[in-house]
Amino acid sequence: MKTSGRTVAPVPVALVIHAHPDDEVFATAAWMRELATTGWTVRNVIATGGEAAELAKTRGDVEAARRQRLAKFERALDLLGSDSWEWLDRKSSWLDSAAHPERAVAAADSQLVTSHVRRALAQHKPGVILTVGADGLTGHPDHIAIHHAVRDAVRADGIPSDGAWGARLHANDIAAAKKHVTKELGKKAALGTGRTAGASHTLIDIDAAPVAKLRRQLLDVYSPGLGTKPLTKVAKTNPGDSGFLRAHFDASRWVVERYEAIS
Predict the structure, then answer these.
(1) DSSP string, the chain
(2) How confident is the model at residue 1 (pLDDT cuts 50, 70, 90)?
(3) Which residue from 11, 51, 92, 98 has the highest number of Cβ atoms inside 10 Å of its Cβ?
């Protein structure tokens, strides 16, 4: 690109692809923030509105739940320095709702999901892609579907210059989080769905210490107290995977984010 006779390097684009709003906080916040503060344009792509987390508050009104969740998503992206967001499926037809399992990303044709990822890659031409690892970070079927779609898209179209990366916990992280839960909540306590055992292979580490305080704030955006209240209270309000990931953050002292290469 030339401006006034000078050649100006294009601003590199990072594409962050997730199934739901809040996945960016649990999975990719540290690397997103680092990219945003070092001159990258960070664009987020989501497959659903994360409606399930808000349905109790909206008495089952899916559209109201979507609006509430997207407002939180946009607040989180502002804090992370993300440039923009868009739907993976431009018709925003996928939902995160147990009442509509047929509209889950995991229920969609895998080739269709991949085609939407390929379209996004062709449009934005990212220098790096961030998503979740092979087990979806938590084993959530929608997360895994997104991982597979990103994997298949880069296999078809090529890996960006700075790679495609999936956030993942190591098996040691899972063990440490479970130990922390036992310590804080008692031997019979449990958090999470137990759908993931973590990776056994070596992962790369991203320094998450600079965003530790911000990540707590971001978790509170989605669920008040999730990032800042004691785990004993979090366990009562967030007993699922979000509570377990909070236990992981505590056990790891909020200082690391791990990734595996997608190829």
Answers:
(1) -EETTEE-PPPPEEEEEESSTTHIIIIIHHHHHHHHHTT-EEEEEESS--GGGGTTTTTT-HHHHHHHHHHHHHHHHHHHT--EEEESSTT------TT-GGGSGGGS-HHHHHHHHHHHHHHH--SEEEEE-TTTTT--HHHHHHHHHHHHHHHHH---TT-EEEE--BHHHHHHHHHHHHHHH-TT---S------BSS--EEEE-GGGHHHHHHHHHHHSTTTTTS-HHHHHHH--SHHHHHHHHHHHTTT-EEEEEE--
(2) very low
(3) 51
